């Protein structure tokens, strides 16, 4: 007979890995799924992958960007696969152009523990997606993840308060 010592919690708000609202290890995060018919037409849906995404070009802080995504029924985009990395790369380069340095918030933070980068669903960030030499926690204030275009292209840590464009994601049922 197997008896688990795990506890179950039900929150009336979304709880994300790495954020101050919940920092316990061994947690499985479940989020509500959205029917594709209810997703705004401003989103591009990849139905076989069960998500939709959108680029917001108006700059916000990381927390405000996350709130915009939540208001849409989603969260900041999780760059947790090669396919999603390529989507963000192509969209960001088309939006900001190559050569100009532009940042786009995505859904990971190390606010709970320095240099432990996890996506909001608790999965680890693939370190190979970072720009060489990053993350660097410049001036000890960079705890939110962004996708950077310019001379280099890839993930970079940024201050959570700096206003940047951002990508949102909605999980489909």
From TrEMBL:
Record-linked Pfam families: Lectin_C
Residue ranges of domain C-type lectin in the record: 48-169
Protein name (Swiss-Prot/TrEMBL): C-type lectin domain-containing protein
InterPro entries xref list: C-type_lectin-like (IPR001304), C-type_lectin-like/link_sf (IPR016186), C-type_lectin/snaclec_domain (IPR050111), CTDL_fold (IPR016187)
